[in-house]
Design goal:
The protein is mostly beta strands and 392 residues long. The protein is built from one helix and 28 strands. The protein has a single domain, classed as Neuraminidase, CATH 2.120.10.30. The protein is 2% helix and 38% strand. This is PQQ-dependent sugar dehydrogenase.
Length: 392
């Protein structure tokens, strides 16, 4: 993810932010040679819906709060508050127009563009709170607190990951329909994945992990796809990712949707049917569905279900949202909402035909989406506003 720069500066720095790029910066790329790895299309699921007909440009975004660089939103079982993380290190509860500070890590987090407090999630029981953040050295922590709805106590690190560079930290946390904690980590940073982390099963970098955090310090589920495999980290759920800044689970189907930020040509969204772990999403052999480094031999990888060109129209970083399963916007049901940080557009795509997305609104410096207990959606802007997504 590319965050924290002023909007105009950020657009000008799209390629400069990735050191030593090795891919063509134009959208067009030659087709793979016969020896190049191939991409397998991941089928999507969900009820058939029209492609956003009647929605184009008609969603409203109602401001419900204003914070300092909000980047992540979560809800807690039995609790009406929205819990919102600020990149600068503070977690707030927003309820009934009031904002209450819950945790303050501002003296501990690193302050780089893609660093800070990046993710928040609650255990399904509501008893424990988890934050993903980078420390003064730039390393990632997933930290747990016991939480009673008012006070966070008993702080402990669940896991830590050394970061070789300051960018591509991932940061998303979410509990899946199986009750396990999923953790996004980027490829370690720089440009082009110089350490080859995306395809290396011996590191957490460039992966989504899956753990049970209620252990010493955590437990690895026995059915993780690489548990027991020699040379592979057992926590790994999915790999071949560059910077999976945001992902979400469809509350109806349990499917996983991953927004993976591109290098200098293509942004992508990946789709994973419920429970189908072990997928390779292609980085750094592929960027989007185009070859990036043909010297990387990976065999088959899972193709993205959405791609769009980086730089065109100001595009720079995909922001994955949610499949809408609420009730207040009937025309949006069954659609996956996603957007772009720099361009600011938000699109709705049928979950069973995600390439057919249409623009439904705009939020400047879109940093994240959120979902409440009823399946209603929210959009966060790095400029400060937190919006509720409303219908026409």
């Amino acid at each position: 993810m590319r965050l924290a720069l002023p909007f105009a500066v950020l657009v000008a720095a799209l390629t400069a932010c990735s050191a030593t790029p090795t891919a063509d910066t134009t959208p067009a790329s030659p087709p793979p040679s016969p020896a190049a790895p191939s991409l397998a299309v991941s089928p999507t699921s969900g009820a058939s819906v029209n492609a956003g007909q009647g929605l184009q440009g008609k969603l409203r975004f109602t401001q419900i709060a204003r914070l300092d660089k909000p980047v992540a939103l979560a809800v807690r079982a039995g609790d009406e508050a929205l819990y919102i993380a600020e990149q600068g290190g503070r977690l707030h509860a927003v309820k009934g127009g009031a904002t209450t500070q819950i945790i303050d890590l501002s003296a501990e987090v690193s302050k780089g563009n893609e660093q800070g407090l990046l993710g928040v999630a609650f255990h399904p029981s509501g008893r424990w709170l988890y934050l993903d953040w980078t420390d003064a050295e730039g390393d990632t922590h997933v930290t747990e607190w016991a939480f009673d709805g008012t006070k966070a106590t008993g702080r402990r690190d669940v896991l830590t990951q050394e970061q070789p560079y300051a960018n591509h930290n991932g940061g998303q946390l979410a509990f899946g329909p199986d009750g396990h904690l999923y953790i996004a980590l980027g490829d370690g940073g720089s440009g082009g994945d110089p350490e080859g982390n995306g395809q290396d099963l011996g590191t957490w970098l460039g992966k989504i992990l899956r753990i049970d955090p209620r252990g010493e310090p955590y437990k690895v589920p026995d059915d993780n796809p690489f548990a027991g495999r020699r040379g592979a980290e057992p926590e790994i759920w999915a790999y071949g990712l560059r910077n999976p800044w945001r992902f979400s689970f469809d509350r109806q189907t349990g499917d996983l949707w991953i927004g993976d930020v591109g290098q200098n040509a293509w942004e992508e969204v990946d789709h994973e049917p419920r429970g189908r772990g072990g997928n390779n999403y292609g980085w750094n052999a592929f960027e989007g569905d185009r070859p990036f480094d043909e010297s990387v031999d990976i065999g088959k990888a899972v193709a993205p279900v959405i791609t769009y060109p980086l730089g065109e129209g100001g595009n720079c970083s995909v922001i994955a949202g949610y499949v809408y399963r609420g009730t207040k916007i009937p025309g949006l049901r069954g659609h996956f909402l996603y957007g772009d940080f720099c361009a600011g557009w938000i699109r709705a795509a049928p979950a069973d035909d995600p390439a057919k997305g249409v623009e439904v609104g705009k939020v400047e410096q879109l940093s994240s989406f959120g979902q409440d207990h009823d399946g209603e959606l929210y959009a966060l802007s790095l400029q400060g506003p937190v919006y509720r997504v409303d219908g026409p």
